[in-house]
Amino acid sequence: MRLRPLVLAGLVCVGTAHADPLERLRAQAAAGDADAQAHLGALLYRGDGMPRDPSTAFAWLRRAADQGSLAAQRGLVVLYYNGEGTEQHLVEALKWALVAAAQGDAEAARHRDYLLGRLAPFQVREAERLASAWRPRPESAAPR
Description:
This protein is mainly α. About 60% of the residues lie in helices and about 0% in strands. The chain contains seven helices and no strands.
């Protein structure tokens, strides 16, 4: 089973002098705005207004997820599970599903339940350990 494709909507980008909305979004993402990073990652994943690029989408989503973006965390579940833009890594998929589900995200909870039924107990324990140790990191504190 493939997890449902990443769906992000309703993210608004404001506050820079760039005229082109995509250029403005890229500038905000590069400046560390987690919402812009998640939105740009979703656009790149879908190929919406630009060539589809799962690897670059993964990089932007990972940056946003590390800062605490729920949409990006949910997106990482899909990318890690399907091995799109990164190697397939079911423990990481479950980790991000646990992190997002703990914030009340219903879709992440469905992914969590699906993965819990398919991973070995040692994998579940490792994902739970990683999820419990995870803390959001502002981009300024994130290593490059």
